Automatic annotation (TrEMBL):
<dbReference type="GO" id="GO:0008168">
    <property type="term" value="F:methyltransferase activity"/>
</dbReference>
<dbReference type="InterPro" id="IPR029063">
    <property type="entry name" value="SAM-dependent_MTases_sf"/>
</dbReference>
<feature type="compositionally biased region" description="Polar residues">
    <location>
        <begin position="385"/>
        <end position="397"/>
    </location>
</feature>
<dbReference type="GO" id="GO:0005634">
    <property type="term" value="C:nucleus"/>
</dbReference>
<dbReference type="Pfam" id="PF05971">
    <property type="entry name" value="Methyltransf_10"/>
</dbReference>
<feature type="binding site">
    <location>
        <position position="81"/>
    </location>
    <ligand>
        <name>S-adenosyl-L-methionine</name>
    </ligand>
</feature>
<feature type="compositionally biased region" description="Polar residues">
    <location>
        <begin position="407"/>
        <end position="421"/>
    </location>
</feature>
<comment type="similarity">
    <text>Belongs to the methyltransferase superfamily. METTL16/RlmF family.</text>
</comment>
<keyword id="KW-0808">Transferase</keyword>
<feature type="binding site">
    <location>
        <position position="107"/>
    </location>
    <ligand>
        <name>S-adenosyl-L-methionine</name>
    </ligand>
</feature>
<dbReference type="InterPro" id="IPR017182">
    <property type="entry name" value="METTL16/PsiM"/>
</dbReference>
<dbReference type="InterPro" id="IPR010286">
    <property type="entry name" value="METTL16/RlmF"/>
</dbReference>
<feature type="binding site">
    <location>
        <position position="130"/>
    </location>
    <ligand>
        <name>S-adenosyl-L-methionine</name>
    </ligand>
</feature>
<keyword id="KW-0949">S-adenosyl-L-methionine</keyword>
<keyword id="KW-0489">Methyltransferase</keyword>
<protein>
    <recommendedName>
        <fullName>U6 small nuclear RNA (adenine-(43)-N(6))-methyltransferase</fullName>
        <ecNumber>2.1.1.-</ecNumber>
    </recommendedName>
</protein>
<dbReference type="GO" id="GO:0070475">
    <property type="term" value="P:rRNA base methylation"/>
</dbReference>
């Protein structure tokens, strides 16, 4: 659990649970656990049933909660959910709210996990909303099973709004905070292609239903709609929060809030191999960034690289032409790209390069030209005539035999040396890239096109990748060299 040390300081799961103890207390857990030759007890984390049993036993052991988790619904991972709750505690502390705290859980799910944890841990009151009928029914049963009806109230959301359906002119209900774990994906294809093959495989098995994982427009559009609705109800909820599953979406949302002057902060939730992010904003007087600054691993800030794109003949200052040309170059280089934001004179793309396809362009062109030249040179075909005396005599059984070298084996010495070195270098490059791709991509960055007056600026911001900022600079140089 490589990221456990970066969990919230108060998270009880910084120290992994004692599976041996759980197997002695809960027969259901003993049935899915197994011991290795050293006697250490473990479970199959890739088995959804095992994950379901583990979560149920931990909820009972650590929070005295009896929870039913349907087989076809998402299994909530407790370290992550607890990280979110503890961060909300920090936000409540800086707003000096300690008693009678009321929270709103958007999309509470079949487990109603956040209201249950908040109620038993902090005695918070909750309103939980849910749009799926089966999940709503199961959540109600979980609340009743734990006798928490006085603290938790669930409501069905049959509208397309996220929070607007809760408020009427006569209703004066106020919330100290809202929290949400929105669906990450916009469609099934995006869900299937969401994990880069360069990343390590997930430790846990896959759980969740389509309605829990997919929403129109994906996570980014959902969060943007929540921000839009929050402006209308800025006086009804003190602090708005949401979880964010993709780092590039967090960056875009932070830009949205900053551009509109909305006070905000964010957090990093680390657990196991998984990282998620929390985003909070308010329209009150609290400076959240100063009061609850982003916590987590110290990260080096990367200043973006900006340069002016040369004018293109007959289409000066054409934004669409520039975007089309950039996308064409990225396709040629086999660099994955996805438009994150497109508004006015700004377009932001998320780019991921898994292989070095931009280096040694001159050498590649020389090889291509040499191949084309060789193809144009006519080959000399010699037909052997037995009547012609053989200048090279090999006496085998008294017969003379003509030895003719095969054209494919005839190489120019200089070419052989050059090609051999290039082939060796190419193999070395490929092997190093392949080994790097097993852990992370070469370059992951934001590419932005910004139009200012009649000029178009290209801005590149490095995020991560084993090739470092130098790899991004090489991509930028390729774009400059091939722009016209």
């Amino acid at each position: 659990m490589a990221l456990n040390k970066y969990m919230h300081p108060r998270n009880i799961y910084k120290t992994p649970p004692d599976f041996g103890k759980l197997s002695l207390i809960y027969p259901e857990f003993a049935a899915i656990s197994k011991s290795d030759i050293t006697g250490k007890v473990g479970i199959d984390f890739k088995d959804p049933h095992s994950l379901r049993v583990l979560t149920k036993c931990l909820l009972k052991s650590d929070f005295n909660l009896e929870v039913d988790i349907p087989a076809d619904r998402l299994v909530p991972t407790l370290p992550l959910r607890l990280n979110y709750i503890l961060w909300i505690e920090d936000l409540m502390e800086v707003t000096h709210r300690k008693e009678n705290i009321v929270g709103l859980d958007i999309g509470t799910g079949a487990c109603a996990i956040y209201p249950l944890l908040g109620a038993v841990k902090n005695k918070w009151k909750f309103v939980g909303t849910e749009s799926d009928a089966e999940s709503f029914t199961n959540a109600e049963e979980n609340v009743q099973r734990n006798n928490l009806q006085e603290l938790i109230k669930l409501t069905k959301n049959s509208t397309k709004f996220i929070i607007s359906h809760l408020f009427t002119n006569d209703d004066k209900e106020q919330f100290d905070f809202c929290m949400c774990n929105p669906p990450f994906y916009s469609n099934l294809q995006e869900l299937c292609e969401s994990r880069s093959p360069a990343r390590l495989p997930p430790k846990n098995g896959f759980t969740g239903s389509p309605q829990e994982l997919i929403t129109e427009g994906g996570e980014l559009e959902f969060c943007r709609q929540l921000i839009r609705e929050s402006k209308q109800y800025r006086d009804r909820i003190v602090i708005f929060t949401t979880m964010v599953g993709h780092k590039y979406n967090l960056s875009v949302l932070l830009q949205d809030l900053k551009s509109e002057g909305i006070r905000h902060t964010h957090a990093e939730f680390c657990q196991g191999r998984v990282t998620r992010w929390g985003l909070a904003w308010t329209y009150q007087q609290y400076d959240l960034y100063e009061l609850v600054p982003p916590r987590g691993k110290p990260r080096k800030k990367h200043k973006p690289t900006i340069f002016l794109l040369p004018e293109l003949p007959s289409c000066e200052g054409s934004f669409e032409v520039a975007l089309s040309k950039i996308k064409g170059m990225l396709d040629i280089l086999c660099i994955q790209h996805k438009i994150l934001d497109k508004r006015g004179g700004n377009i932001t793309l998320d780019i991921v390069a898994s292989n070095n396809t931009w280096s040694n362009q001159r050498r590649k062109r020389r090889l291509q030209n040499r191949t084309e030249t060789d193809a144009k040179v006519p080959k000399l075909h010699i037909e052997q005539d037995s009547t012609i005396p053989n200048p090279i005599n090999n006496q085998v059984g008294g017969e003379s035999k003509l030895e003719v070298s095969e054209p494919s084996k005839s190489l120019n010495i200089d070419d052989n040396i050059t090609n051999g070195s290039e082939i060796r270098e190419s193999k070395q490059d490929t092997s190093s890239v392949d080994s790097a791709n097993k852990t992370e991509p070469l370059v992951h960055a934001f590419l932005k096109l910004v139009k200012k007056l009649d000029n178009i600026l290209l801005e590149l911001e490095f995020l991560d990748g084993c090739a470092g900022k130098e790899g991004l600079h090489q991509i930028a140089q390729y774009i400059k060299n091939n722009w016209k």
